[in-house]
What does this fold into?
Amino acid sequence: DVALAIYPVVSFGTGINKQNANIVSLTNMPNPAKDITTINYEIIIPSDIIISVYDITGKELMSFNQGMQQAGKHFVIINTSELSGGMYFYSLKTNEQVLTKKMTVIK
It folds into this structure.
């Protein structure tokens, strides 16, 4: 007899070669967050920026289109007061890359 198991594959990167990476850093503070959190990020080339927040099932809860941004450090303040306590994911999408991190919301 042969047993067969199927496991979901979860990826937090895009598999893009580091030489092509545009996102230098991506963090949120405070983490865990209660009412607000600030997502800080740095990009090395100008790019269209979209920041999204997802629940653990992958459902998009919030999306912030920041438009074209120049290279450098940027931030977005997220109101987490209407989210339930638990784990969430936030992603930063540029023209070349998507990077996803996790955050915790406490009540």
